[in-house]
Structure formats: C-alpha cells, structure tokens
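Moderator note: this is an archived Q&A kept for reference. The question asked for a predicted structure of one protein chain; the sequence and the answer are reproduced below.
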Amino acid sequence: MARLDRWRREDRAVAPDALRTNVQRAAFLGFVVAAMNVLHLVWLLADRPTPDAPTAVLTWHKWLCVAHASMGASMLLGGMAAWWVRRRRDPGLLGVLVTWWLAIQGLSHAVAITVIDQWVTSNITPYTLGTLAIAVLVLLPPRPAAYLFLAHYALYAVAIALPQDDGVLLLSNRLQGLGNTVVAWALAAILWRNFATITLQRRELLQAHEALRARHREVEELTRHDPLTGALNRTGFHERVAPLLHQGQREGTPFSLLILDIDHFKAINDTWGHPAGDEVLRALTQRMRTRLRSSDVLARFGGEEFLVFLPGTGRSGALALAELLREDVGTLEVPWEEERVTFSLSVGVASSEAGQRRSFEELYRDADRALYAAKSSGRNREVHADTLPPSSLDGDLREPVAMGAHGPGAGSTSGTSQP
C-alpha cells in the first residue's frame, strides 16, 4: 500500500509533464496518422472490387473506406487542435481533451476496422496494432489506461460478433483480443512508470544543479566580499573598478579615489575589545553606503582602511563627498554594551580630471600620500593630493597597489595601515 500511495503521488506530480509530452506528440502524430489513412483510402479506391464480387467483399470495401476516411478526418482534427494547444505554456483542459480525443479515436477506429475485416478475414491485426500504438505513443496513468482499454475491449468483444458467425473463430478472436488488451495495458503502465521515474530524477538533478549553482555563486561572492562588513575586498574591488577605469581613460572623463582610515582604531580595540572594533567597521560600512551612488565602488582594503572609487567625479565632487562622509561619521555613535563608541575619519583624495587619463596606480599612490598628510596634520580631515607640495610626492610611503594585484581581502580588525 505504501508503494501504491507513493506511485499515486508521483503520478500527480508528473501529470503536467506527461500532458505537455502528449500534446507535443499529438501535434505530430495526428497529421502522420491522417496521412496514412489518406493513403489507405486512395489505395482502396484505386483497387476497388468489381461489381460482381461477393456481397461480403463489397460490404467490407465500402465500410473500410468509410472507416479510413473517418479516422483520417478525426486524426487531422486532433492534430490541428494539438498544434494550436502546444503553443500555450499550460495546455490545461484543452490539452487533456486533445489527448483523450486522439486516444479514443485511435482505439475506436482500430475496433471498427477489425470488425469490418471480419467480412473477409478472421485476423485481428488492426486491433492489436491499435492497442499497442496507443500504449506506446500516449502517456496515461495505469488506472485511466485500464478504463480506456477495458472499455474498448468490451466494444470490440460485442461488435466483432456482428460479421463473424463462426463460434470457434469468435471465441478465438475474443481471447486474442483480451490478451492483446492486457499486454497493451501492461506496456502502457511500464512506460508510464518509466516516464515518471525519469521525470522525477530529472527534476532532482535540476534542483541539485540549481543548488550547486547557488552555492557556487555564494562562494564567488565570498571571494569578492569582506565577510565582516559585506563590502568588496581587494579582488572584488579590482574587478569592479577595472572596466570603469578603462572607460574613463578611453573617454577622458574624470574619476576619483578616496582612501578612508579610522583614526586611532587601535585605541578602540584596546579600550572596548576587538568585537567592538568589528561593530564599528560594520556601522561605518552601512553609513557610507547610504551616502554613495549605485555607481560608486566601496571596498574594505585592510584593517580599518576603506577605498571608494568615484566614476565620473572630479576634484570638487570628490572633496565634497569626502567631507560629507567624514562629518556624517563624526555624528555616528555605535552602541556597545552600555557605552557608545564614537570615532573620526581621515580621508585622502586623488583625482583624474577630464582628459588626464591617469592610471589606478598613480591615483592610489597620490591618495595614499594625501591620507598620510591628513593623519600627520591632526586627523579627522580630508586632504586632496593636488594640495600637497611637490616634495611630498617624491618617494614612496607604501608600495602602490597595482590594478592586477588582487591581494586577500581583510577579514579582521587587526593591524593599522596609517599612523
């Protein structure tokens, strides 16, 4: 019983897929079977019996022509309906009607042709072929398939007695028909279970594939984002900035770089502990995001140092944003236990004005020196590199970060990048 219940649940689960498959098949097979019946009809009309042929032969020929004409018309109608229904995303009731129309028409005409053949022969080949064809070509759950085959077998068993008056042949044909019906139903049930199993396995594979892809995207996000703040890390920053930088250099449009550093961050860690420092970094990231455009690129570069790349922004716009961020952060109070942690920022700014087409390495070097100048002159201020005397731009404070140098992203609060 448990297995039967599971099969019923699976039958309901795959029914929409089976319906779409049936409609797709019907849109093709309806026309093929219609064409086959037209060929049969043409052959019968071309090779008609002479008027003096036995009455049984004349009756057989007449009604066989009618049966093939009727079957061809009904299959053509079903194929046209299926062709129209197949374009719908959900075949719905129309798809069900088309499927059952073709199945019933196929079996009914197989019975009719078999009965008509009894006027000239005792074989039941049309019924055998019809039941097997429906079993193979139409996907039906076992219970509805049983009703369909048993109903047509009953019709067959009654109708075959009309032209057949030989009791022995009649019994033989009925027994053969019953065997064919049982075999056809068993084949239909096996094909249905096979279809259900494959369909469900395919769904499971697709779900597993989607889960794997989602996990892969998550891993990729982790390799490009700082796990503490959610901001981009070095790798993610360089990947995002590279095309923007290339566009600015190609078009000669301005762009700027901010390097922001929390003042006395080590003191925050020493006073309140590293968890408090982590909370400060998260709060700072969230506050800066509210002030940046969607086109701006924010990254945590290491420890308490953040970078902001501003495409399409020159010196004045970059300085205005740096001042806004610094003043906004100055009002920020980060709750920690029963205290509130406050802090300030120092900001170094460097710009590539319209037509300059500066490299990222130059921009980073100058912004880093401007940050050093801001720290050296008292902190809690923003300094633009073009305000520094030429002598301060000689020599290296730190090794410039090349656009291709995708170092590891910062994930902890340890270390300071500026004095």
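Archived answer notes: The longest strand covers residues 255-262.
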